[in-house]
Amino acid sequence: MKNSKFIIIASFFCIYVIWGSTYLFNKVAVTQLAPFFLASIRFSVAGVLMIFLAILLKQPLRISKKQFMNSIIASFFFLIYGNGVFVWALKYVDSGFGALIASTQPLFVLLLLRLIDRKPFQKKSIIGVVLGMFGMYLLVSQKELITSEDTLLGIFMMLTCVLSWSYGSVFVSKADLPKSFMVTTGYQMLVAGFVLAVASLSIFEPWISPLNWTSEVQISMVLLVVFGGIIAFTAFNYLLKNVSTERVSTSAYVNPVIAIFMGWYFLDEKLTTQSMIASIVLLTGVYFITSRKRK
Question: Where are the chain's structural domains?
Fold first, then answer.
């Protein structure tokens, strides 16, 4: 019992802090590498390492057809679309700004649960939704941050990625998947790596040898693969099966704070007063959504 509690706490630390830092590392990497190429390399390497670790730990790799199909579906919502397109959008949007947009995930999860499971809204939920919508308006209505039409497109695509990730969270919490979280993560990443590689080649993205990457990009990719991919995503899959989906989505509190600070400190990204107010309003809304009583 104590061990499982420790694993849950450690897993939350991973999705809170480690994932908060991945916005910075993706932003650094996408400055030199094409987005789908970047994501395909990241997930392919992480997937191979995950399966290798599963073999070393003698975990069964054999899964049913249904489990494999569910892994493909989860991979699409989380990694292929949810992450691959989000990384593409980071070409046009600051990493901290993107993290704030991603923080709307609990709002999307709540709305999806209302549509799918017919879960009624509670008073706190309604307050949270209103604050969340207002916070989003404050965030995206800043003319000084909307530098071009590409910025608007990037923001819109990020919102569709958040919707995709949110639906994936609801799907995985109920889906039949391999019991081993390493195997589940490994298969999802291998599928994503393959699909994103095909997507990259089909739109003729340039493929650059790792030997020709800058040291910053090489370090960022290693951190994305090992920490952002293997460790944090495994922790995420574990939590979805052991904790409520809404509680897992509370990573939205911490990720933007980490991302905004790192983007400001390392990349000199703008930190406007309106962004700070918007983030407070938005995250207060998220708090109301995730702190309400469960029926």
Answer: 2-290
